[in-house]
Amino acid sequence: MAFIADLQKDFKRLLTHHRLGQSYLIFGEASLAAARFVREFARFLEGKEGAASHEPLLDALWCDGATTGIEEVRDLRRRLEEAPLRAPRRMLAIFGADRLTLPAQHAILKLAEEPPQDVLLMFTVRNPEVLIAPLASRFQKIYLSDKEVFLESADNDVARAARNLLAAKDAKARNEIFKKLLEEEADLFLVAAHLLAELKADPLRNIVLLKSLLARLALMNQFNVNKKLQLEAAFGVATSK
């Protein structure tokens, strides 16, 4: 089992000592935290650690397993042949790789078998057994549990902000919380992770907000939408039903 902070330290140490592998599969229920770790490490590789999250990366390719087919894989393979511009490695991250079609998995297998020397593959899945065995066997596997991620920072400011969002009486109160989070440059993916953990404690009572939040997180995972607006919309959908 592994915590996000520990993973960051371990991967940085591996990179420093030239022992970082080429293919990693992060699996478990904590898919949001896994995606956050991958993105943060990509920013570290390009020297943008601590910079505003909206700043574009030059050497990282993001993909959603549900929308990545054979043609997309072929295009990715061509792009990965290019030398990295800023980072020591080009990164290909596929979020929800367990949603890849069988043909897409076979296409990616060719890349995983002989990845270019300066490429880093990082895939996230809930269950690695969903992948075809030859593909899964090419990756070093890291398990990340929801419980660990939540307990790691259950009492920090972000966790308290998430609880305050759920307890807020109206949109005005929630907007003040969002405003403060933005001023403090809080990680809204982490806020969402805490929201999910809180809501899952009583899924029947929170089913409407859970569905709304999960739908918005799917959009946030594409990394090209306004995260604050998506979280606000999640609450808006829930309160309108």
Q: Can you describe this structure?
A:
- There is one protein chain.
- Strands 2-3-4-1-5 form a 5-stranded parallel beta sheet, covered by helices on one side.
- It starts with a helix and ends with a helix.
- With 241 residues, it is α/β, with parallel strands linked by helices.
- α4 (102-113) links the parallel β3 and β4.
- It has helices at residues 4-16, 31-45, 70-80, 102-113, 133-136, 146-152, 157-167, 171-183, 188-199, 207-220, 227-239, and strands at residues 23-27, 60-64, 90-95, 119-125, 140-143.
- α7 crosses α9 (188-199).
- Helices cover 52% and strands 11% of the residues.
- The mean pLDDT is 82.
- The protein has 11 helices and 5 strands.
SSE layout and pairings?
Blueprint: H1 4-16, E1 23-27, H2 31-45, E2 60-64, H3 70-80, E3 90-95, H4 102-113, E4 119-125, H5 133-136, E5 140-143, H6 146-152, H7 157-167, H8 171-183, H9 188-199, H10 207-220, H11 227-239
